[in-house]
Amino acid sequence: MSDTTPSPQDFATTVDQLETIVERLESGELSLEDALGAFEQGVRLTRDAQQRLDTAELKVRALSEDSEGRLNVTPFADIESPKDDTDEGKETPPW
């Protein structure tokens, strides 16, 4: 693995690193060369983060689809919440 390739890390760490890079770039204190290097690192991290999001979306879809490829939506179990007098006369959401 080369020095320019980020090591595998969790998504939150990637986002934290991106935020740090953005702060450094916005500070205006970096030289042109350092700013370019930080930008390149940010692009790599952004692509890595997007790939992770895409992979997670595919996993969620695979777990949520039925055998015919339709989304299998299962509502949460009905949980009885305590009602008070202020709830009367108000519409409740469909979920």
TrEMBL record:
Record keyword Cytoplasm present: yes
Gene Ontology CC: cytosol; exodeoxyribonuclease VII complex
Record-listed E.C. numbers: 3.1.11.6
A single BP term in Gene Ontology: DNA catabolic process
Superkingdom of the organism of origin: Bacteria
One Pfam short name: Exonuc_VII_S
Region feature (Disordered): 76-95
Reactions accelerated catalytically: Exonucleolytic cleavage in either 5'- to 3'- or 3'- to 5'-direction to yield nucleoside 5'-phosphates
Gene Ontology MF terms: exodeoxyribonuclease VII activity
InterPro entries: Exonuc_VII_S, Exonuc_VII_ssu_sf
Stated family: Belongs to the XseB family.
Known function: Bidirectionally degrades single-stranded DNA into large acid-insoluble oligonucleotides, which are then degraded further into small acid-soluble oligonucleotides.
Quaternary structure note: Heterooligomer composed of large and small subunits.
HAMAP family reported in the protein's UniProt record: Exonuc_7_S
Protein name: Exodeoxyribonuclease 7 small subunit
Organism of derivation: Halomonas citrativorans
Gene from which the chain derives: xseB
